[in-house]
Amino acid sequence: MEKPALVKFYEQYINCLNIRNWDDLHLFVHGRLLYNKQPIQLSDYRAMLEQNYRDIPDLRFQIALLTTGDNLIGCRLDFDCTPVGKFLGIAVNGKPVVFSEHVFYQLQEGKIAEVWSLIDKDAIRDQINS
Amino acid sequence: MEKPALVKFYEQYINCLNIRNWDDLHLFVHGRLLYNKQPIQLSDYRAMLEQNYRDIPDLRFQIALLTTGDNLIGCRLDFDCTPVGKFLGIAVNGKPVVFSEHVFYQLQEGKIAEVWSLIDKDAIRDQINS
User: Fold this and answer.
1) What is the rounded distance in angstroms from the CA atom of residue B38 to the CA atom of residue B61?
2) Is A68 at the interface with chain B, CB within 8 A?
3) What are phi and psi of A6, to 5 degrees?
């Protein structure tokens, strides 16, 4: 995919997450993929996202920085939300937190085949402990 | 800068770090910049890098994934190294560790003006505690 198509693809993918349109997730994500080097299936990926929304009812993905390469997407995602209980093992318990994720996606045949995600968990810990 | 120029710029910047050519750092980095939203000066940036090399004598920056945008660079950097004492507040004490950094750079007038860096500190902690 060329750069404009990658940008459009990614904006549509993020919109799919934000409107929780899980039935369309397969349009963006392969049936089998690598997530932080672990092989998972689309159903695992969907389950992880659904769990994220249970942990964070006001979750919203905001694209802060967007870059592309050869069938590759890089993004800084900003979050400003309120996890109700534990999130990523951190007891947030309803405190509003602001944090970012830096994530790269490798596409194959027009769909996400590999994801490398880093979430700024230390930022969340710092806000909980402040 | 167009994509090929951004890629070449970044490869030269990483080479500058790997050969520890601090006197050329100003060719790639503005005199004043934002680092994870904090205003710093080139001398602070250089001091941070020099400290990294003191903490990790065998430090080497390896580009794993490279993406570009509008005067924007996104990179996953892989590290396979041996911090001798504390690194990022973690007592590594000479244990070999493998980890990644996901980092974005905004360029202005052909030099780095803002950096957003996330380092996978949990991966380091997990390897130290295993």
Assistant:
1) 23
2) yes
3) -65, -40
| CA dist., res. B27 & res. B20, Å (int) | 14
Q: In chain A, which residues have their Cβ closer than 8 Å to the Cβ of B125?
A: none
Q: What is the DSSP letter of B82?
A: -
Separation between Cα atoms, residue B37 and residue B45, nearest integer Å: 13
Is pLDDT of B129 > 90? no
Number of DSSP helices (H) and strands (E) in chain A, helices first: 3, 8
ipTM of this complex: 0.96
Whether the Cβ atoms of residue B13 and residue B110 lie closer than 8 Å to each other: no
Question: A75 to chain B nearest CA, in Å?
Answer: 8
Averaged pLDDT, A52-73? 97
Within an 8 Å CB–CB cutoff, is residue B116 touching chain A? yes
Rounded CA separation B25/B78 (Å)? 21
Helices (H) and strands (E) in chain B, counts: 3, 8
Q: How far apart are CA B90 and CA B129, in angstroms?
A: 11
Measure CA of the first residue to CA of the last residue in chain B; give whole Å. Answer: 44
- Looking at CA atoms only, how far is residue A118 from chain B in angstroms? 7
Contact B28, B108 (CB under 8 A): no
Shortest CB distance from B116 goes to which of A65, A66, A73?
A65
Predicted pLDDT at A130: 77
CB-based contacts of B10-14 (< 8 A; 24+ apart in sequence): B10/B63, B10/B66, B10/B73, B10/B75, B10/B105, B11/B63, B13/B112, B14/B61, B14/B63, B14/B77
